[in-house]
């Protein structure tokens, strides 16, 4: 599979410590770098958002220049792959704007085979600024769909796939309504993108069966559970203890935000954590307060680190994305056996507990939205409902009296 990505080529720095911004194209373990003509310091390039840092006066122009080359290469690769004759020489020959538009016009009426269409749609998503977990889900779904479809269906036009076949495929994910609908949504993403590639709306997935999603009840900790759990973790696993403490005290998400914290994220004498939009799930600049009981544990560690060091690994490279999931899975067996936690309580239960406590104390949904970093108030309301907290007082007041 051909992959392509806009990256800062840090193999060799210039005398001014800048690196070239390039589009890196990979095929069969061979790599070619297309130069954008832009040179940047590492701190001026955001690999997650694929944008030049706003601290540069001409950041918009530079980002646009880089994006134009990326899109040009993307279109050329799509055209070449339709012919199944990809080579770097052919790609270099076809990235001139005139050749690309002419080829797109010539091929717009051609029907892609289903196999090629799925391959192209997946490649575009894999090279987008999406979470690694989401990319893995799309890869797995794409692989399973390719195995499910017959040889004739894969060779035929994607528009000839009947909706009933997608219904049959989705029955493989009938374990629960939530699981089924998540896979249906991912399948819809791929087919919507294929529709854009062939310049023809594809509504196949929309006609497939919908299933009712049963809401899961997230379980918070009782107030009496908190200190015994934290005391146990402090002795058993110091890094997991620190992660749990931060999850409870700062409202940050353990796997996406806390795991990636560096010393540089702590400001104002370590009393606040400042995260840019690309460093948190909500996509907005986020500021959280660090309580004194957390600083007592953190400050001795932070004094030993460089600004770019991760607070858990104590080096620039963070722990892997499964680190705390694995540590919690091992620790919870012992804690359940000792009666410290219940089976459905998780690492996220520390965050749930803090949210429940605040809501009970203030009844301020907007403050809770801000602290949790939710994108909209609707997300916060759904979150509270999943905790069984929304309208609890109204239900209590409405209970029949004897």
Q: Main traits of this protein?
A:
single chain, 402 residues, mainly alpha, DNA polymerase, domain 1, hpI Integrase, Chain A, 3 domains, three-stranded antiparallel beta sheet, 17 helices, 8 strands, Integrase_catalytic
Could you give the topology of this structure?
Blueprint lengths: L2 E6 L10 E9 L2 E11 L4 E2 L4 E2 L6 H24 L5 H7 L2 H11 L6 H13 L5 H17 L2 H5 L7 H8 L6 H21 L25 H14 L1 H13 L3 H5 L7 E2 L4 E4 L10 E4 L2 H11 L20 H15 L11 H14 L2 H8 L4 H10 L5 H6 L5
Antiparallel strand pairs: 1-2, 2-3, 4-5, 6-7, 7-8
Helix pairs in contact: 1-3, 4-5, 4-8, 5-8, 9-10, 10-14, 15-16
Walk me through the structure.
The chain is mostly helical. It has three domains: 3-107, no CATH class; 114-207, DNA polymerase, domain 1 (Orthogonal Bundle), CATH 1.10.150; 223-393, Orthogonal Bundle (hpI Integrase, Chain A), CATH 1.10.443. It has helices at 59-82, 88-94, 97-107, 114-126, 132-148, 151-155, 163-170, 177-197, 223-236, 238-250, 254-258, 292-302, 323-337, 349-362, 365-372, 377-386, 392-397, and strands at residues 3-8, 19-27, 30-40, 45-46, 51-52, 266-267, 272-275, 286-289. A three-stranded antiparallel sheet has the order 1-2-3. It has a three-stranded antiparallel sheet with strand order 6-7-8, with no helix packed on it. A hairpin with a 4-residue loop joins strand 4 and strand 5 (51-52). The longest helix is centred in the N-terminal third of the chain and has 24 residues, at 59-82. The chain is globular, with a radius of gyration of 25 Å.
């Amino acid at each position: 599979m051909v992959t392509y990505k806009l990256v800062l080529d840090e193999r060799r720095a210039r005398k001014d410590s800048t690196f070239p911004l390039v589009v890196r194209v990979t095929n069969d373990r061979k790599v070619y770098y297309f130069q954008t003509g832009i040179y940047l310091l590492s701190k001026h390039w955001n690999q997650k958002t694929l944008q030049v840092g706003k601290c540069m006066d001409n950041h918009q122009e530079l980002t646009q220049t880089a994006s134009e080359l990326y899109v040009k290469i993307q279109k050329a690769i799509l055209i070449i792959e339709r012919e199944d004759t990809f080579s770097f020489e052919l790609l270099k020959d076809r990235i001139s704007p005139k050749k690309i538009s002419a080829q797109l016009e010539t091929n717009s009426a051609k029907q892609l085979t289903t196999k090629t269409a799925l391959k192209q749609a997946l490649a575009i998503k894999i090279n987008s600024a999406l979470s690694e977990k989401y990319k893995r889900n799309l890869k797995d779904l794409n692989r399973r769909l390719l195995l499910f479809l017959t040889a004739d269906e894969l060779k035929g036009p994607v528009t000839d796939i009947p909706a009933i076949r997608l219904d049959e495929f989705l029955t493989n994910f009938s374990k629960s309504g939530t699981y089924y609908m998540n896979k249906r949504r991912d399948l819809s993403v791929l087919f919507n993108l294929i529709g854009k590639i062939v310049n023809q709306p594809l509504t196949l997935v929309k006609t497939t069966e919908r299933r009712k999603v049963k809401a899961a009840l997230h379980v918070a900790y009782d107030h009496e559970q908190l200190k015994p759990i934290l005391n146990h973790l402090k002795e058993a696993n110091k890094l997991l203890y620190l992660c749990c403490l931060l999850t409870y005290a700062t409202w940050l998400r353990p796997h996406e935000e806390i795991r990636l914290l560096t010393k540089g994220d702590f400001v104002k004498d370590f009393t606040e954590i400042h995260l840019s939009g690309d460093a948190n799930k909500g996509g907005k600049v986020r500021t959280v307060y660090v309580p004194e009981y957390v600083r007592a544990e953190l400050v001795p560690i932070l004094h030993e680190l460089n600004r770019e060091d991760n607070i858990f690994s104590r080096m620039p490279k963070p722990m892997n994305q499964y680190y705390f999931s694995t540590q919690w899975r091992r620790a919870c067996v012992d804690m359940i056996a000792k009666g410290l936690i219940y089976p459905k309580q998780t690492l996220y239960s520390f965050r749930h507990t803090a949210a429940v406590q605040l809501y009970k104390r203030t009844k301020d949904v907007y403050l809770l939205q801000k602290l949790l970093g939710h994108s909209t108030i609707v997300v916060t309301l759904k979150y509270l409902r999943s905790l069984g907290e929304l309208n609890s007082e109204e239900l209590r007041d409405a209970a029949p009296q004897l």
